[in-house]
Batch of 3 targets.
Target 1
Amino acid sequence: MERHAMREEAEPVIAIWAAASPFLPAALRTLDDAGVPYVVLPDEPGAPGLDRAADAEALVVGGAEVSRTLLSSLPRLRLVVRAGVGVDRIDLEAATELGVLVANVPDYATDEVADHAVLLMLAAVRRLAHFQASTRADWVTVDRPPVMRLRGSRLGIVGLGRIGTATAERARALGMDVVAHDPYVGADAFARAGAAGVSLDELLAGSDVISLHAPLTADSHHLLGRAAFARMRRSPVVVNTARGGLVDTAALTEALDAGVVRAAGLDVLEDEHDVARHAALLGRADVVVTPHVAWYSQGSEQQLGASAARIALDFVRQGVRPPVLNPVR
């Protein structure tokens, strides 16, 4: 089912499904300045008020799940804008079948996430959690677990997009050798990042630090699972600022227990709505965890809201088609 021209009988309507999202004020300022009608929807799917979006032509979402049912309930919808990068919670197949474009905001926090990846790498490599806890004991007899020298070590980056490239640049400034795996980019991308292209097996076996910057798809789910950990040869530090589902949490815990993985720095986890299930991981001295905030700064928050709203606004007001992530003509 294809959805065609913008209706002429009424003003375009934009719906924002992100009532509790921190980028909301910046998005609303952008829409208010433009004078376009909009509606802010409640965060819970099926909650009272969703019917107010029945005339929406564009939907801006934060982390909400955009299902086939939701898409089918909005007969005028022609664009979903994910305020962020990952679109794994949007049913792309359904959107494509319904003629709904799906776009994202891929460049709002490149530096923030790359900075955070390096922060987690340094904290994990330098055993920050262990030594911070040690300050409450005798400084003379402090236990000193093995700490790897960073200069001259090898960073393996999985996913050489904007953030992976920015992380590579920072790592090279620290004196690290950088390799990368990404089957979806050309040789020029590796040259820009100053990274040698390698197979995933080579990266797993030969890296001292492994940093994930890939999208979550059916193919990349549990990219680091028991089989991948078994191929690691240098007891690497694992860093994940991308998507929690890239790492099998149970397998990571086993790898840490066995010394197959030296330490981990994580900003994302599987099923972040049920953090208690990760208690065995969160309490470890060899794991540094932050609550999915790698993207955050005041500047990135404002840029995200304004950019997402502007994409929707330009589409409904001027017919400007943004770069999309699904094959709708």
Target 2
Amino acid sequence: MNILEIMKQNKSYVSGYESTPMEKQYYAKELCWKYNQTLPKEQDKRIEILKELFGTCSDYVFIEPSFRCDYGFNIHIHGFTFINYNCVILDNSPVNIGNGAFIAPGVCIACSGHAIHPEQRAKGVGTSAPITIEDNVWIGANSTVCGGVTIGKGSIIGAGSVVKKNIPVGVIAAGSPCKVIRKITEEDKIKPEDILY
């Protein structure tokens, strides 16, 4: 099995710097650069670039520049998703983002990490694990989601959080490290008469 096949598997792995497929990184960086040069009204052009860059991309993906990723082919966005300014996705493993996800400015989604021991780290040994962001998740500004994490359907991650463990379905979680604060309930609905239309 080659490194690209290993990277596309939905499980964690350890690799050395020499196994990094640099030509794939360069290609992704070029596409990110092209994307970040588009005008705000060029949504069709943006979708065209994202479909070339990502493994899976619907017509209803909206990403505000500046956007960066490592490879692109490991990013799978299923349905409508809005990603705000300055998002970084280190997709050394698969990143699955569900329908209805909202990702606020400055979010970092990082599958990859480095070896803990300094000698190995200096030699480029690294780790990577997949990330799943389920349907209707909202990740607050300047949060970091680490490799191996699943954020459950409908949950909210508070701004500035560091998510290192799985977050269950339908909760508000925040902090560093991110912890569940409470469940989301019917009481959280905004009254229709309070919504401006």
Target 3
Amino acid sequence: MNISDNLKKNLLDLEYNKNLQYFNTCLVIIFTYLIGLIFAILSRQVDISNFLQLVILIIFTLVFLLIMFYFLIDLKTALNRIVKEIKELKI
């Protein structure tokens, strides 16, 4: 084990923790949005019988969820790459 491998492992650990925090934040944002959406529908602040309001809500929700799922997949790929790089180090 040399200093450069140990230093690289520490830097990869920091990057892993940063990406893991982003991943968890994305999950919290998604669930917060979905819970808020459910409360808005149940409290009738969003009228699902109004076609225009429903279409706008569906489009916004789809765009929001697609962006968030893209970030989740990207972060999960980065996490897997970092784990693979750490395993390849000679420590």
